[in-house]
Design brief:
- The chain has six helices and ten strands.
- By secondary structure, it is an alpha+beta fold.
- It has a single domain, classed as Phosphatase 2c, domain 1, CATH 3.60.40.10.
- The strands form two sheets. It has a five-stranded antiparallel sheet. A five-stranded antiparallel sheet has the order 2-3-4-5-8, covered by helices on one side.
- Strand 6 and strand 7 form a beta hairpin.
- Helix 2 packs across helix 3 and helix 5 packs antiparallel against helix 6.
- It is globular and about 75 Å long.
- The N and C termini lie far apart (about 75 Å).
Length: about 260
């Protein structure tokens, strides 16, 4: 049976719209990949790397390594609420604000994040927020000052295989206008490894009742711990992916540091 001309035209518009959306999505994926850190600085006492995979092609997770001045590095992992295009837009907003702050001179973790929170709060809906781990590493003292804004606890595996959890020290960004956070400090000694993951990694498999969890992360970190940091991060991601054989339902991001 031949369709009426109007129906054929409607189907044609739908097909063209789907094709345009697919093209736009592929472009957005490429743009978001370009926003990941490039040309990172070299330090003498640590090696570092990161990995991010969005559940819907683009998403609201990201990591960054920021030049904060001679011998200092910013280590960042953020997870914006939601998934897909909306989360990606919020992520771009947050990333631009943080990079702008760091480019104009770093004045301390809490003060910087207070300004970032104020802008993020003003530009988001009441239910939107971002969890975030931000650390400032000093190559000379080996000290990592950090603020954990509702992010999954960062894990530090010491050279003797003991573990330390860097718990949350502040509310997520964007929840309240008068945000305030507590800064903590940890020393990274030779052989230590720091790993920061988004909840998509830790909670991989949660929907099926068998999640990767902190125990899975610790198990991978403790196995062959002297490997290159990029290999370690890839191993963690691979282990988490085994819990989601049909593909992840949440964005998965990992940032890692190996002290040398």
């Amino acid at each position: 049976m031949q369709l009426p001309i109007a129906a054929e035209l409607n189907i044609d518009r739908v097909v063209r719209g789907q094709q345009q959306f697919g093209s736009d999505l592929n472009l957005a994926i490429a743009v978001q990949r370009q926003m990941l850190p490039r040309n990172t600085k070299q330090l003498t006492t640590i090696r570092y790397a990161g990995l991010s995979a969005a559940a819907r092609g683009i998403g609201g997770d990201y990591y960054d390594f920021l030049d904060l001045g001679p011998g200092t590095l910013g280590i960042l992992l953020a997870d914006v609420c939601g998934k897909g295009v909306a989360a990606a837009l919020l992520m771009a907003n947050l990333q631009a604000s943080i990079r702008c702050e760091c480019a104009h001179g770093f004045s301390g973790l809490s003060a910087m994040l207070q300004r970032v929170n104020a802008r993020f709060y003003e530009s988001t809906l009441p239910e939107q927020y971002a969890t975030l781990f931000f650390g400032r590493y000093d190559d000379r003292t080996r000290r990592l000052d950090y603020v954990n804004c509702g992010q999954q606890p960062a894990m530090v595996m010491r050279g003797d295989r003991s573990m330390e959890r860097l718990e949350s020290t502040a509310l997520p960004l964007g929840l309240v206008p008068d945000w305030a956070g507590e800064k903590n400090t940890v020393e990274l000694r030779n052989g230590d490894m720091l790993c920061v993951c988004s909840d998509g990694v830790i909670e991989a498999g949660l929907e099926s009742g068998c999640e990767f969890g902190e125990d899975g992360l610790i198990s991978v970190m403790a196995t062959n711990p002297d490997r290159d940091i990029e290999i370690e991060i890839a191993r963690i991601a691979q282990a988490a992916y085994t819990y989601v054989p049909n593909g992840p339902t949440d964005d998965m991001t990992i940032a890692g540091v190996r002290a040398v």
